[in-house]
Amino acid sequence: xxxxxxxxxxxxxxxxxxxxxxxxxxxxxxxxxxxxxxxxxxxxxxxxxxxxxxxxxxxxxxxx
Length: 64
Hints:
Radius of gyration: 10 Å
Helix content: 55-70%
Number of strands: 0
Oligomer: single chain
Order of helices and strands: HHHHH
């Protein structure tokens, strides 16, 4: 199974920063990211809502 980072390649934020934002709140897998509502991720990280929506879109496609 791909890690969160393997799926999140084309973002405006550098990959390391995106990874660090998610890991800082305990998200170390795609499933752990998807378990948190997007609005909560926006509050708990420094990620823009558009970025979070794109992350969810990409990660959900990995499970289809």
